[in-house]
Write the structure tokens for this entry.
Amino acid sequence: MKTVYITTPIYYVNSSPHIGHAYTQVACDTLARFLRQIKRDVFFMTGSDEHGEKIEKATVEAGLKKGQEKEFVDGIVRRFTGLWEKLSIRYDRFIRTTDPIHEETVRAILGALYANGDIYKKIYQGWFCTPCEAFWSWTQAEKGICPDCGRPCEKLDEENYFFRMSKYQKQLIECIEKKELVISPAMRSNEVVSFLNGNVLQDLCISRPLKRLAWGIRLPFDDNFVAYVWVDALINYFSGIGYLDNKERFQGLWPADIQVIGKDIIRHHAVYWAIINLALGSRPPKRIFAHGWWVVGGEKMSKSKGNVVDPLYLIDEKKYPVDALRYFLLSQVQFGWDGTFSEELFIEKYNADLANNLGNLLNRTLTMVEKYFNGVTPERAPNGSEQGASLGHEAERLGGGIVESAQELPARVRHFMDIEHEGPDFQGALGELWDLVDKANKFIEVSAPWKHARESNEYALRIIIDNLIQSLGIVTALLYPFMPTVAENMRSQLGMALPCERMTHDMIRWGIVPAGTRTLKGAPIFPRIDTSK
Ligand code: MSP
């Protein structure tokens, strides 16, 4: 089976990463870990976008000089990779647009497009928005105001190179219609299709004159120009997997199975990038998934608006568990939709879902294993025992389908995570896990194991505890892609020998925690956050 190739956007390294960037990373990392659990090989790539005016400007603002951009970005890239490590983001390749192989690939591709007659030179007159790195015609940016970000644009009147986009417009529409390129969620696909059907694509300006911008990759066919940063950046998806230096790997990975991006850069991917592929005679990515924005105080969180939430503040300063942040990002909104971020919402969800629900279930269950079975998981009531059968039946009845739910859980998670069918829906998958956690907590209340202990009904106790332990074992293994550190911790408290990382879905079933397993209750995994202080 083909290795699943997953990409994130490559982030502008003009300032520190924020929750919006962390979101895509956590989502792709979770997807990659999930796919490995269903025995798929995965290649997960991320990286940094290091050229262009934004970086040139940020370098000078940081007190360095023009020409010291590489020094500047080296420092910021370390902040990104350091954060990815803290967030347990395990990627296979980190591509930087200043990597020599990337620069060579950009030059090779632009050279090929030029040789193909797809690139030509003309005088460009219009607006340019530096923060958005976007060109606008006189009519698009009314009075010189960027239609995207609302900031003033600069006037341009200069010679530049252009890429013939409209030449491939029809072919692109066909690709989308034939589902060779799927854009998710469906609402985004509709937007792209109606844009393509309603407009003749303007040719894309792919250069900046050297005299205006030095920090970029020189065009192979004209030394007086550098590549427009978006064209440079998009090519990372090729340069990082061996387009030039490892043809075999490239052929094994392309077309990408899923390219995850934020909704603001959908046109760059679903139109520009897809068309660059068509012009090169290559297939466009199989799927582009555009997620929504994290909104703070009603506005998109962004560096330029100064309302960013720094993940390090939450992890290092407030000492919230990393996996709690991963959980919040993945469960708060359905993937594809906007979500509101605030520390209050984070704490609310933490206390409700993690401390009170999951953490409590683990704690109560392990306490009972210690108390009633000396810390060793019990055998279920022996088959054929009349008393066992009737009490077992009673416990199942009280359990409200806990056994069936637990057994169906891996398939339910696969359903929500399926990238071939509108997935991944992290919120949906986590919802299934929490449904079982909820049921298990309620089961403790209704089955009242303490009562059976008082009455020495050992058969009932065994069934009750086994129901809880098996449910927890299954939840733990399935939780791993979402919350890897917590899952491994739960796994060792449950006494399960095999690391979650090595558990594949075929192993995740009733009986996952064998009878006779010694449990090792540890400190509560999610101590309640007290907000009254
Ligand atoms: N460098 C380009 C991408 C080039 S990909 C070939 C870029 N960089 S960025 O750093 O500005 O943004 C990277 C990603 O972060 C985008 O997918 C963007 O949607 C995402 N986010 C930025 N702010 C965000 C939120 N407030 N919420 C969620 N994601 C957001 O664009």
About this structure: The longest helix spans residues 343-373.
